[in-house]
């Protein structure tokens, strides 16, 4: 009997304002891979968010899975992969990190690597270069993380946030590499101290689940939003309208161009309806924190086991 697995990875938002390259939150928007070992490589895209044409040898799932197998001295077998995604590419919703996490799990399964959760955190963050999105996709919930010089991730994991999140997704792409080009190379000491204090208060507020303060400090970033805001369609207008409609706070999702608001769950429906009326050119999605992280289900005779 040939083995088949369903790998599901949540997307994520990073930073939440001043938590630059450190804070990540998994979202209930998913990348799903159905994987079986085959006699030839085949990757089939089943969602509009995924490209229609690609070169197998350049596909992120293939290249990362092969790299992970190589790290452990294993030969990656040919696989048939069906991919579905709710994550638009280059929009600040962790699509690349989710693909990296999924590819690591693929290699783990088909090469029988027996990777630990810590291994998955380390490898995914090393590949990404920072641990925010990847840690959230691996663990679920909210993660506050750092990646040390040896490539080891240390994470504080926060679950059960009692809040809803609304993402404003424009019909434009913004790659993280491009968004980083507008950032200053350095800050003076006083500015850096204020920026760091805001990040500290955001982290403390998230751990304490103090939603009013979370919203306040989400909107206090000095590290990146002041410089990236000009790249983001309707950023100031969304920020103002969301506050007036009852959001705790609004910030860029990762490097953008998506914008994310944290809101009380009780106002979810009316908030989304109002934002859709005001910003019809954006795709506006209501989501929650995913609390499971990556999940794997073995498929037996095409039935989830």
UniProtKB/TrEMBL annotation:
Domain named GHMP kinase N-terminal: residues: 60-141
Q: Which gene encodes it?
A: thrB
Catalysed transformations (reactions)? L-homoserine + ATP = O-phospho-L-homoserine + ADP + H(+)
Q: What is this protein called?
A: Homoserine kinase
Q: Where is the protein situated, by its record's location annotation?
A: Cytoplasm
- Stated EC number for the protein is 2.7.1.39
- Top-rank EC class of the record's enzyme: transferase
GO terms of molecular function: ATP binding; homoserine kinase activity
Query: Which InterPro entries does the annotation name?
Result: GHMP_kinase_C_dom, GHMP_kinase_C_sf, GHMP_kinase_N_dom, GHMP_knse_ATP-bd_CS, Homoserine_kinase, Ribosomal_Su5_D2-typ_SF, Ribsml_uS5_D2-typ_fold_subgr
Which Gene3D superfamilies does this one have? 3.30.230.10, GHMP kinase, C-terminal domain
Its principal location? Answer: cytoplasm
Q: What does this protein do?
A: Catalyzes the ATP-dependent phosphorylation of L-homoserine to L-homoserine phosphate.
């Amino acid at each position: 009997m040939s083995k088949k697995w369903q790998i599901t990875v949540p997307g994520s938002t990073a930073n939440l304002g001043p938590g630059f390259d450190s804070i990540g939150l998994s979202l209930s928007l998913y990348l799903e891979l159905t994987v079986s070992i085959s006699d030839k490589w085949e990757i089939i895209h089943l969602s509009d968010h995924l490209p229609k044409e690609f070169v197998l040898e350049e596909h992120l799932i293939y290249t990362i899975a092969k790299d992970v197998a190589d790290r452990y001295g294993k030969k990656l077998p040919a696989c048939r992969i069906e991919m579905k995604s709710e994550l638009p590419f280059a929009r600040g919703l962790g699509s690349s990190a989710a693909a990296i996490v999924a590819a690591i799990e693929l290699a783990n399964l088909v090469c029988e690597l027996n990777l630990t959760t810590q291994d998955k955190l380390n490898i995914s963050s090393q590949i990404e270069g920072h641990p925010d999105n990847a840690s959230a996709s691996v663990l679920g919930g909210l993660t506050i993380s750092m990646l040390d010089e040896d490539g080891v991730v240390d994470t504080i994991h926060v679950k059960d946030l009692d809040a809803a999140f609304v993402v404003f997704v424009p019909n434009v792409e913004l790659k993280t590499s491009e968004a980083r080009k507008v950032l200053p190379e350095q800050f003076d000491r006083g500015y850096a101290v204020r920026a760091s204090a805001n990040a500290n208060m955001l982290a403390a507020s998230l751990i304490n689940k103090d939603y009013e303060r979370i919203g306040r400090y989400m909107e206090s970033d000095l590290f990146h939003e002041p410089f990236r805001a000009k790249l983001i369609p309707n950023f100031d207008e969304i920020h103002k309208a969301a506050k007036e409609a009852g959001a705790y706070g609004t910030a860029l999702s990762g490097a953008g161009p998506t914008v994310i608001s944290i809101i009380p769950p009780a106002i979810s429906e009316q908030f989304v309806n109002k934002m859709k009326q005001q910003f019809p050119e954006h795709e506006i999605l209501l989501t929650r924190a995913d609390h499971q992280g990556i999940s794997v289900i073995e498929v037996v005779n095409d039935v989830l086991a």
